[in-house]
TrEMBL record, chains A, B:
This is Trans-2-enoyl-CoA reductase (NADPH) protein. It is an enzyme of class 1 (oxidoreductase). It comes from Dioscorea alata (Purple yam). The keyword Oxidoreductase applies. Keywords: Oxidoreductase. It comes from the Eukaryota. Its EC number is 1.3.1.38.
C-alpha cells in the first residue's frame, strides 16, 4: 500500500490535503471497466487522537472493476467505534493508512460490467458495514452494497447498520421477550438507547430507562417518554435501597442493557429480576462493572456482552439486510426515530469535535456530502 | 411449634441443654407406629452468630409414622451454608427454632409400617439435602433417604451431597468440556476445588488452579498436583501482564470457577479464552467481582452463578441420587478424595470454632456420632 507522499493545497479546507494512491481496499485487477471520479476523504496514516491524525486527502480515481460499484456518498455518521479504530484501540480495524468511517449511504454513480443487482441512481448502504465511508466516492464490490428505499431520510439510511441494529439484536439474542415483559437500560439517551425504547414499545415490551443527572434531564425524560419509555429515572433518583418500589405496574425486567459501567451498571442489576440477564455493549463512564457474589449465586444473574462487529462476522450476519429493511420500514412508518445532527462534509472538524464530546453531549454527528 | 422452655443440666457437655418438643419437621399424625429414641441435637432458637445461638438440646422421642424412617446419625458435616442459615443470611433456611445441619449419613434404626425401600441397618444419606442433621436420631419420611454402600467411609457419604455435587454440576451445566479442554479455578484448596481438580482429571480435562499465598502454599501445590492438578499458581505469581504465558501445553480454558471474588476472580477471567464462562459459587474474600467493559464486549465473557440449593429445587434434582452414587463410586475406587477432620459430636464446640475459621484455615469439619 502506498504511503502518503504529496501535499496539496487549495482544497478549501484548513487541513493538509495529500494525494494518496491505493488507499481503498481495491487493488488493481485485470478487468477494469472505467475509473471512479477523484474522491476526497478523511484519512489517517497512523493511530492516535482523531483530531490530530486525520487529514483531508484528495484520492485519485480508482478502477471500477467488473464486479465493483462506485457510490457517490450522501451521508455517513461518526460512530464511537470509528473513533476507537482511529485511536488504534478497537480490536477490528483496517490497516493504516486508511479512510475513516464504517457505515453510510450513497447513490450508485457507476457499475462494473458484471454488476447485475444495482444500477446507476440506486440508493445503497454498506451492509454489513465496511471501512472507508468518510469519502466522497467509494468503490467496493457489488456484494458490499444493499439497495434501500429513497423514501427514508438519508441520515437514517446512513446510520441504520450500527446502532439500531445493535438495539435490535440485543432485544432478540439473549432473553425471549413477550408483550408485557420489561427491560431496563442505562445510557438511555444514546442512539442505541433511543432505539431500544422504541423497539420495546413496538413489541409491547415495557422499558425502564436510566439517564445521568444533568442540565436538561427533565426535558430528556419527556423526550424519551414520547418515544415510548414507560419509566425514566436519573441515576440520583435511584439512591434508595429498594429501586423496585419505584415500579408501578411494570414487571421486574428479565433483560438489562449497560453501555455505561460503574454505578450505572449496578443500578441495572438492581432492577433485574431473579435469573435476569445484563448485556454490556458500551462503557461510557470508563469504569468497570462490579457485581456482588450474591447477585450471581442467589439472584442467578447472567452477565453477557454484545459486539455487533463480532456478530457481523458470524453466519447470522446474512440476516443483517433483512434487519436493515425492517428497521428502515419502522423509520418510514414513523415508528422509529432518533436524534442526529447533520453536518456538511467540509465541516468535518466541527462534527468530529462534537463526536469527541468536546462540547458536552451532542446527538449523533452525521456527515452529509 | 413449641418454643424452648426447660433448661436441663448434666448432659456432660458445657452447653445449656433444654427439652424441646416438636422441633423436627414431623408434627403428630394419625398412624404412628412407634416412637424414636430421645435425641440430642444442636438447636438455634434465633438467628445470630452460631457460637452464640446454638445450644445442645435433648429432644424428646417423636412418632415414627407409617412412611417415616428413623435414622441414627453416623456423621454430618458443618458446611458454610449451615453457618449462614444459622446467621439468618441464607435465602433458604428452616423456620426457627431449628436443629442445625443439612447433610449427613446414618443407619436406619426403625421404619414406619408402610416403608418398603429401606430396612433397619441400611446406611442412608439425606439426598437431596434436608434440614436438621446435627442430631443423634433424625425422623424423616422415607423419600428423604437414599441408601448407600457401606464400603464408602462415612465421612464421604456424609459430605457427598453438597460440595462434590456442586463440583460435578458445575463441570456439566455451563460449558461442554471434552478431553484436552481446560478449566481454571480459584480457591482450589476448598473442598469443591479439590473435587473439581479430580473430576477434571477423571474426564481428561486439564486444570489450572489458583491458591492464596500463605505459609504452606508449596505443600498445598504438591497436594493438589497429586490429586491431578495440571498447574497450581499462588495469586502473587500471577501479578504479571500476560498470565497465559505461564501455560505450557494447556489450552486456554473455556470455563472458570470463582469462589473467592475480588482480585482472585479477575485472575480467573484473565485466564479464560475468548467466549469463556466464569461461574461464581462462593465469595470467600467478601469482595465483589469486577469486570472490564472490554471483557464483555471484545472478549465475550459470560459471567454466571451456581447455587446447588436452587438446582435441588428444580426437576433436575431427580438426578441427584444417581450423581451421589457416581461420586461415591469414585470415592470407592480411590478416584476422589478430599481432606476432612472428624470430630466427635460431643466436641461440637471445637468443630464449630474450626468451621468458623477461628483457628485459620482447616479442612472440612465432620461431626461423628
Amino acid at each position: 500500500m502506498a504511503s502518503l507522499r504529496t501535499t496539496l493545497r487549495g482544497l478549501g479546507v484548513s487541513r493538509r490535503a495529500v494525494f494518496l494512491r491505493g488507499i481503498t481496499s481495491n487493488t488493481c485487477r485485470a478487468f477494469s471497466t472505467g475509473l471512479s471520479p477523484p474522491s476526497k476523504g478523511f484519512v489517517y496514516e497512523q493511530h492516535g487522537p482523531p483530531d490530530q491524525v486525520l487529514r483531508m486527502v484528495e484520492l485519485p480515481p480508482v478502477p471500477v472493476k467488473e464486479n465493483d460499484v462506485c457510490v457517490k456518498m450522501l451521508a455517513a455518521p461518526i460512530n464511537p467505534s470509528d473513533i476507537n479504530r482511529i485511536e488504534g484501540v478497537y480490536p477490528i480495524r483496517p490497516q493504516v493508512p486508511a479512510v475513516g468511517g464504517s457505515e453510510g449511504v450513497g447513490e450508485v454513480h457507476a457499475v462494473g460490467s458484471a454488476v447485475k443487482s444495482l444500477s446507476v441512481g440506486d440508493r445503497v448502504i454498506a451492509c454489513p458495514t465496511t471501512f472507508g465511508t468518510w469519502q466522497t466516492y467509494v468503490v467496493k464490490e457489488e456484494s458490499v452494497w444493499h439497495k434501500v428505499s429513497k423514501n427514508v431520510p438519508i441520515e437514517y439510511a446512513a446510520t441504520v447498520t450500527v446502532n439500531p441494529m445493535t438495539a435490535l439484536r440485543m432485544m432478540e439474542d439473549f432473553v425471549e421477550l413477550n408483550p408485557g415483559d420489561a427491560i431496563v437500560q442505562n445510557g438511555s439517551s444514546s442512539m442505541v438507547g433511543q432505539c431500544i425504547v422504541q423497539l420495546a414499545r413496538i413489541r409491547g415490551v415495557q422499558s425502564i430507562n436510566l439517564i445521568r443527572e444533568r442540565p436538561g434531564s427533565e426535558e430528556l425524560k419527556e423526550k424519551l417518554k414520547k418515544l415510548g419509555a414507560n419509566e425514566v429515572f436519573t441515576e440520583n433518583q435511584l439512591e434508595i435501597k429498594n429501586v423496585k418500589s419505584l415500579l408501578n405496574n411494570i414487571q421486574e425486567p428479565a433483560l438489562g442493557f449497560n453501555c455505561v459501567g460503574g454505578n450505572a451498571a449496578s443500578l441495572v442489576q438492581k432492577f433485574l429480576r431473579q435469573g435476569g440477564t445484563m448485556v454490556t455493549y458500551g462503557g461510557m463512564a470508563k469504569k468497570p462493572i462490579t457485581v456482588s457474589t450474591s447477585s450471581f449465586i442467589f439472584k442467578d444473574l447472567s452477565l453477557r456482552g454484545f459486539w455487533l462487529q463480532k456478530w457481523m462476522n458470524t453466519e447470522k450476519a446474512q440476516d443483517c439486510r433483512a434487519m436493515a429493511d425492517q428497521l428502515l420500514s419502522f423509520v418510514e412508518q414513523g415508528e422509529l426515530k432518533y436524534e442526529m445532527e447533520l453536518v456538511p462534509f467540509i465541516e468535518f472538524d466541527t462534527a468530529l469535535n462534537y463526536a469527541l464530546g468536546k462540547s458536552g453531549s451532542r446527538p449523533k454527528q452525521v456527515l452529509t456530502f
